[in-house]
Each structure stands twice: as structure tokens, then as C-alpha cells.
Specification:
- The protein has 368 residues and is mainly α.
- Among the domains are: 149 residues; 74 residues, no CATH class.
- Helix content is 88%, strand content 0%.
- α2 runs antiparallel to α3, α4 crosses α5 and α9 packs across α10.
- The longest helix is centred in the N-terminal third of the chain and has 101 residues.
- About 14% of the residues have low confidence.
- It comes from Chrysotila carterae.
Amino acid sequence: ATERAAKAEANAAALSDEAREMQRQLRARPTAEAHAALRDELRAVRDAQTGSKDLAGGGYGNCSSGTEGDGGGAAATSAADSATDGAFASTAAEALVAAGAASAAGQMVQPLLVAEHRRLQSQMALLRAKLTEREDELRAARQREKELSAKVDEQVAAISSLEDSLLTQHSTPRDAGRTNHTLADIMQAGDSGATPDGSASGGHDAPDHQGAMLRIVCQQRERARREASALAVEVKGAREQVRALQAASRRLQGDNLALYEKVRFLQSRLESKPGGADAATHISISDESTEAAYKELYEEKMNPFAAFHKRERLQRYSELTPPEKLMLSFSSFFLSNRHARIFLFGYMVCLHLLVSGSMYSVTHRTRC
């Protein structure tokens, strides 16, 4: 429960960080209000350009009516007004083109920003839902932890009360026999499901503390049985592992002995070549104790006396007759097998008793 609570807290913290990061990104992005302000500014620029054009047109009309009587001055004024009108017209056209481009760009970007904003809002809602779910799991895990802690405290208190009760009962010499009898009855009642008096576990004759003691003793017995079963499984696994390791050790020892034989063979071949004593490469094992151990095993394997004894044994066995070979095989089997020796001993004892009984019976009958 503690691990689940810690995991839920970590998930909640991660989701909170992710939600804060998304909120920061949303605040950094341009909103619909910013686009509306940009459109208002563009509209104001467009209105200002239109007002400038109107003012230029009015000034041109006034200049034309004031200089109608003068021929040379009127021509010059008309040319200047035409140039001014063309300049204002080109400036207004450029402003309108820029305003149209900005408006088109704003209209193209606005749907994308709105869609992105909606997507981020939906993702934030999902993350908030996940955060709420993780917080609920965290609260449930904490509640479960509290319940388990309370249960453990209750069991510890019950065990302490049981120990105090047992110590109190054993401290009184005159109640020692009654206490032992009560504990024996409790153990028997745990197997049969009844109280020490033979009634049901919830009988009115038995005291309440005896029922509580019975339940506690039964729980302790079941826990001891479970622990014993678990320990038996662990011991069995350890024994199997030990056997496997022993087999692997024997196999590795044989492999190492074979490698040592190959090393000795290579050394002998290199030394047997012309000039081998000078040109031979020294082959050795880094650990001297390991090399000495395998050297001893190799020498025992290559012991001429052992090989001689083996050849002599095989020769003697081949010289035996078939009955002698059969007797030797049976003797080796019975001497090497413990169960076979026990069976042979029992068979001989039974046969001896049978023969003795038969002889006694025959002797008794002949006398009668």
C-alpha cells in the first residue's frame, strides 16, 4: 500500500507539472483578443488613409476655384495639385494593399490558432481528469494503509494481551495444571472447531477471553504452518540449487582437468622440438594454487600404480568362472546398497527364525 501511494503521488506530481507547462504554453500563444486588437489597428490605419485622401481632394478643389481668373498661375497650381493627388493615391493604394495582406494573413492564422487552442483545452481537460483519478487512487491507497496499520496494531495488542495472560496463568503454581489443560483443550478445539468445553466456539458457558485466546492461538498456529511451508519450499529449492551447483562444479573440474592435460601436451610438444628448450613458449596458469591443485589431480589420474591395479583387477575378473563372477556381482551389489543390505539382514533373520521354529516343532512332536 505504501508503494502504491508513493507511485500515485509521483503520477499526480507529473500530471500537475504537465498541466502547468500546457497553461504556460497557452498563455504564450496569441489569443483571439490579440487578433481583434490587430484588426482594429489595421482598420484605424485604413480610415486615416481614407481621410487623408478626402482632405487632399478638397484642397485641390479650392485651389482651382481661387485661381480661375489667372491663366499662368492656374496652370502651375493644377500641375502641383495633380502631383499631390497622385502621391496621395499611391500612398493610399500601398496602405490598402498592406492592410488587405495583413487582414488575409490574420484570417488565415485565426482558424489555426482557434483549433490549436481548442485542442490544448481538450488535452488539459483530459490531464485534469487523469490528475483527479490519480488523486483518488492516492487517497484510497492512504486509506488502505491506515486500515492495515490499524489492523496490525490491533493484532500486536492482541498478541501482547495473550502473552500477558499466559505469563499470568503460568506464574500461579496452583493453576499450572489447569492452564496446561486449557491450552491443550484450545489446541484440540482449533482442530475440531469447538470450545474446550465441547460446545460451539460462540457458546455462552465459555468466557469471552477464552474465545479471544482461542482465535489468537489458531491464527498463530496457521501463521506458523504457513511459515513452515514457506521454509520447506525454500529448503527444497536450496537443496536443488546445491545439487545443481555441485554437478556444475564437477563438470567444470573435469573441463579444467582436460584443459590442463592439453596444456601439458602442448608443453611437451614444444619441448620435444629441436631447440625447444630455448624457443618454447612458457604456458602456465596465473594462480599457483590452482595450477598445483590441477597438477595433483592430473598426476593422480596418470598414476601408473592406479593404472596397474586397474589392469590387474580386470585381468583377475576375466579369469573368474561365471558362478564366481555372479557371486562377486551379487556381493558388490549388496555391499554397496544400503537398502539391499537391510533386506538381506532381514531375510537372514526371518530364515533363521523359520528354521529354528521348524526344528523346535519337529522335536516337540517326536517327543510326544
